[in-house]
Amino acid sequence: MFFVFIAVPITVSFQILTSVVLNIEVKGSHVFRTLYFLPYLVPPVATVILWVIMFGTDSGIINQLLAWFGASKVDWFGSEQWIKPIIVTIGIWMSGGPVLIFLSALKGIPGYLYEASRIDGAGAVRRFFTITLPMLSPTILFAVVMQMIYYFQMFTESMLLNNGGPNYASRTYMFNTFQTAFRDMKFGYAMAQSWILFAIILLLTLLLMKSSKRWVYYESEKGSG
């Protein structure tokens, strides 16, 4: 529930803001877009191993930098306080694909809307909330659903970082189902857990689709009815 109801809004918000920044046409912007997309191509196992190398307690790059500045080392993966933010950060790190989708959606927003708003005296912040977000709402719905499914089914990060620990802090539903099946050898129970997860994802997806009528704007439906 933590990763779904807290990490999903954080991750999607970051994806939107990153796509808005990358949409600014400046010299070298294509290079930055490519660099941000590259981590998305890396397999999840390799990505987690990379973060283990960075945040390892003894030989991690981050702890070595902290020691160089005279600060004490941090047990990132052994701390209930830090393990969840690190997993969320990994999800943000791997957001190149959704950011590319948001970037494509931004390219599809008619330029005359921004021109008209500038003539009316709207600032950048007002244009973002009155034009950009409403026009991006279909893409936001898609991103929220996909990110929700991703966090519900998350397994690799939980297993490789600290085997679901410490004190169950990084234990996810899929990791629990995996252990039920292949550690406890309760395959029927694990199958029941899988069906429950399917029902939960289906229910939340239907609720999101139902609520989308109130906050998702489709330009094709403008003036209909």
Automatic annotation (TrEMBL):
Predominant place of localization: membrane
Tagged with keyword Cell membrane: yes
Location of this chain's protein in the cell: Cell membrane
Assigned keywords, A-Z: Cell membrane, Membrane, Transmembrane, Transmembrane helix, Transport
Membrane-topology descriptor: Multi-pass membrane protein
Domain annotation ABC transmembrane type-1: ranges: 1-208
Protein name in UniProt: Sugar ABC transporter permease
